[in-house]
Model the fold of this input.
Amino acid sequence: MFVLLLAFTTGSHVLTGTIALVYIVDAPTICALVWGIASGVLLFLLALPPSFHEFAILGYIDFASISSASSGPIASAAWSLWPPEGSDFSACLSACTNIVFAYSFAVGQFSFMAEMHDPEDFVKSIVSLGLIEIIIYTLTGSLIYAFVGANVSSPALLSAGKLVARVAFGFALPDSSVRFVDTPRAWAIWTGLIALLTLISWIIAEAIPIFNGLLSLMASLFVTGFTFYFPALFWFSLLREGRWYDGWKNICLSILNGIILWMGLFVLVAGAYASVQVIISGFRTGNMRRPFTCASSQYT
Done:
């Protein structure tokens, strides 16, 4: 499941890169598949370092880039508060699963924890990451929706208009269990795995070229496990002390984790259904880009 989540996440990055390059270059005569391939190659090269240590500095660059890019749509978007009319169950639940994806900051916790110099500091790091991400995502999402409302684009950087989107994308674009890859055979295997994962991700991005639909499907199928029902199952099977009804603490935590477990299973099933319905509806109404399209105009 974790590998599939990585493939879909990388696919969303390929799609984001395609949209960004289409806007930045602004050359409708160039086939959009070229930008998708370019994004995939770039992600492949960035994924080649076998441990996080080699490119930890990119985390700071990424944080600064995303923070700078997010402010553009907030300042430049037109005002439109009211939600769209006729929203059905699938559209509403798809929007909820996008929120689930946005706040799933603990998905890579095992990979990061395994490479930390002091693994005992992991709790502090994950709490800091969670607080910072929740604040940034909540403020950015709520402010953009307050100003843009039903007219918000996907991704939201497109809501500010073509010029601001180009500038914002400019700011936004400046793993296996083997930690040490130091032999030719190991490098060949590692490079092959990264290339295969990138190829699968590119196919996913081109096959589902609607950003919010891709995120919704990914959140429903994979993120719900790492965010909801896996932690609840961990508590019941590993962290619980004694029987579930031994004392008020166990009773309260059992009820809480039971609710989280069923919430995750509901989003898994209903969210996946809603995501598929939204994607099918997008194809039928023509509001969705064609898979493997060469037309750059479909991204603008």
Observations:
- Residues 244 and 253 are 8 Å apart (CA to CA).
- Residues 88-156+210-289 form one domain.
- Residues 175-179 have pLDDT under 50 and may be disordered.
